[in-house]
């Protein structure tokens, strides 16, 4: 599919420069150059690796130029600009200037990221090229993703990379959450125990998050009941072990959607959702299996891990009709 995109759009390349400098008490090293030939579907490109020296937890990314970009405007050109960020801290994003009416922009802009050395191997550098549009949503032309663990971070790297189709939100890793479900038909009690989460997306500038979990019931596509856990400070692997019990009549259990959402608490600004999942008879995959196991094993707690999904994706699947709270059944 990517090959077809490349053929249709032309040769999509972006030349970038990564300079990662470490801080140490050693002497300045003599620069050493080496050449590395890379092959891709459109032929050969060349990358230069240059040894560098000192400076702590700092990474410089130089976006130099792009060539043969896809024409996004009716006039056969584009107005490209670049957004650069690390997956370890997606709140921190840099944006280049907009270059008008060109398919071969020369950016020559440098951006500096502060990232703990221990996190570099797990983070990915993302460079996305957009077409600016004054009166409509900006269209993404393509992107480059570079897992930092694949590079020798003691070197300066300069090379061409082919743009690929942008990864959608559904492919971003948001984290995982573990919780148990138990339903007792005779008492109409649904118990949800939020156990723990791991590998949550970093939401704060410190590289951590302050997560808490909301548990919400939706009845007939309308918001009904909700509860939430306490906030766990500065962690990406919180342990909650908090139980919530809801009254759900047996004749309503088939019409219920259970929504589990993980949030990042912020004292200054608005709390932000990290990701969510929903379970019920309308769910699919692991979520439907977990719900079915609960119904098939009344009185027995069923625990399972779930991958968090993008907020927009879950909300669209739920297709909520309104935002008001329904009265309890029978009232």
UniProtKB/TrEMBL annotation:
Cofactors demanded by this protein: Ca(2+)
UniProt keyword annotation of Cell wall biogenesis/degradation present: no
SMART domains: C2
GO cellular component: axon; dense core granule; plasma membrane; synaptic vesicle membrane
Subcellular location, principal: membrane
GO annotation terms (biological process): acrosome reaction; calcium ion-regulated exocytosis of neurotransmitter; synaptic vesicle endocytosis
Localization, UniProt: Cytoplasmic vesicle, Secretory vesicle, Synaptic vesicle membrane
Membrane topology summary: Single-pass membrane protein
A Pfam family matched in the record: C2
C2 domain segment(s): 40-161, 173-306
Family from the record: Belongs to the synaptotagmin family.
Protein name, UniProt field: Synaptotagmin 8
Record organism: Chrysemys picta bellii
């Amino acid at each position: 599919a990517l090959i077809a995109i490349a053929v249709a759009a032309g040769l999509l390349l972006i030349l970038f420069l990564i300079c990662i400098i470490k801080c140490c008490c050693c002497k300045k090293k003599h620069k050493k150059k080496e050449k590395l030939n890379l092959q891709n579907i459109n032929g050969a490109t060349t990358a230069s690796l240059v040894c560098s020296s000192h400076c702590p937890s700092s990474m410089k990314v130089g976006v130099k130029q792009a060539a043969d970009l896809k024409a996004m405007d009716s006039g056969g050109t584009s107005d490209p600009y670049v957004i650069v960020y690390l997956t370890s801290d997606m709140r921190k994003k840099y944006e280049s200037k907009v270059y008008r009416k060109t398919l071969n922009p020369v950016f020559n802009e440098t951006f500096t990221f502060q990232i703990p050395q221990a996190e570099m191997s797990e983070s990915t550098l993302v460079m996305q090229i957009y077409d600016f549009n004054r009166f409509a949503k900006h269209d993404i032309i393509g992107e480059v993703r570079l897992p930092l663990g694949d590079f020798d971070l003691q070197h300066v790297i300069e090379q061409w990379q082919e743009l690929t189709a942008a990864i959608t939100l559904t492919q971003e890793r948001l984290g995982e959450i573990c919780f148990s479900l138990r339903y007792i038909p005779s008492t109409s009690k649904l118990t949800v125990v939020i156990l723990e989460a791991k590998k949550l997306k970093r939401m704060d500038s410190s590289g951590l998050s302050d997560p808490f979990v909301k548990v919400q019931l939706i009845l007939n596509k309308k918001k009904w009941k909700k509860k939430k856990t306490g906030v766990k400070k500065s962690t990406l692997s919180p342990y909650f072990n908090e139980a919530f019990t809801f009254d759900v009549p047996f004749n309503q259990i088939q019409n219920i959607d259970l929504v589990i959402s993980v949030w990042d608490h912020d004292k200054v600004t608005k709390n932000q959702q990290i990701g969510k999942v929903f379970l019920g008879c309308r769910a699919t995959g692991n979520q439907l299996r977990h719900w079915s196991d609960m119904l098939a094993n009344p009185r027995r707690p069923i625990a399972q891990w779930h991958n968090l999904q993008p907020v927009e994706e879950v909300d669209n699947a739920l297709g909520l009709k309104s935002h008001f709270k329904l009265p309890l059944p029978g009232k």
